[in-house]
Write a structure and sequence with these properties.
single chain, 479 residues, alpha/beta, four-stranded antiparallel beta sheet
Amino acid sequence: MANYSDHKDWQWTDNGVIDGEELIERIRKIVSPYTTAKPPVCYPGTTLEFDERIKELIPDFLAKQLNSIGTHTHGKLDDDGNWQAQIGEGGFDEVHAIECQVIWMIADLVGGLPKLTDGYFCGGATEANIQGLWVGREWLRQRPDPLGKGIAVLTTPLVHYSIIKGSEILDLGHPQWTHCPKCLSNHIFLPDPHGSGVNMVGMNKKGEMDVNELRRIFQLKYQEGFRRFIVVPTIGTTLMGSVDPIKAINEYANEMRHEGAHTYIHVDAAFGGFTLPFVAQGSDLEIGFQNSGVMSMALDGDKMGQMPYPAGVFLCRKELQRLVAMKVNYIRGHEDDTLSGSRSALAAILAWLNFKLHGKNGQKRYVQTCLANRNELERILVETFGTEGPVKVLPTNPYINLIAIEVDIRGGQIPENLMEQGILQPYHLRRGFFPSDSKDIYSCPRTIYKLCIMPHNTGEQLRQFVEDLQTVVKENRRK
């Protein structure tokens, strides 16, 4: 464990260190769970296996201090039908052109076209989600709110915390968690007293937003006088990998438009945005701008896109970012419409280079390997514990490389000491909570453990994990 109190580590001395080898050695010794001999099964990332050509370029990228300030997908068609990007910050024109191209490559995966899509790389999907809420707020502010109720944000209990954070930052509403008298935990979600901001919608047993529950909550808010809504579906929830039914949500939003309700749909595809488009077929692919009500999306290349942290991606329909644009005289393009401001171009350049070198088929093979390993783990778990044993595998989405399990020991929770120091410590397990009645957001939660399966999680390692889990279950069920 790191020693944070040692004054030698934290104190900024007057003079620098002449012989810095000790400092350099400390950095060299940093161990990452992505590169250890026994990688964990739950981190949504893997060793960056760039080929040697890319590895040689990375120090050069860093030394060039490349700034991606602004959005570079704005522009217009010239007389020859070619897209001309809007002028950006001077000195980085080629970098901005590359980011523009790779944004459209990513947008193409989710139904976006250059003429119809804007976007940029940012500091992770949390930032992309907040940008989406920000744009959504400004878009809805242009729509009528006859009773002055504000904006209701409708999503499920499996939503990423960044949506609640973003709603707080943007003053859309201020919910709180309160004590449950039944299970004595703070799982009861109370929306803002005025009803605005985040409101939770029930789910089905797979952790997917239940459209009938969406209708019910939407109608309740409508009867309260709300006419402005942001709906946030998730493509690959962090706990269960569940995929909300975008098409059905979009159809209902269109239906309510005729009743005077205005709906902005922001899709959080942070986890599934770089998996589902490469393996899904038919209507399952239509998770984005194929749906008329989807206005913006968040994706995350540093999860399943084989990119370094951070590599968030924000996408939206053309010109929506104008709603949040700030005039900045000292910037050559004279405006900035991103939450980031100045930001590194490293992720965008590496994404463009990696995608160009390996193509869609390269990413498809990567995703298929993850899914094959996930399916193998599911097989081993069922073979070892059965379908009604002490470890239960919850329903999985065929396109997302996550498994969620319940473990029937000590009230359903694995003892902390076994997860942090004991036999299960190398796997870095993460727990979350799921309502015992998926449609009732106030029902007492079950403890769920998520397992993210990557290409390096091969059969031997997966079998070892299951054996270790089996040992823990046997020893703790006897007590």
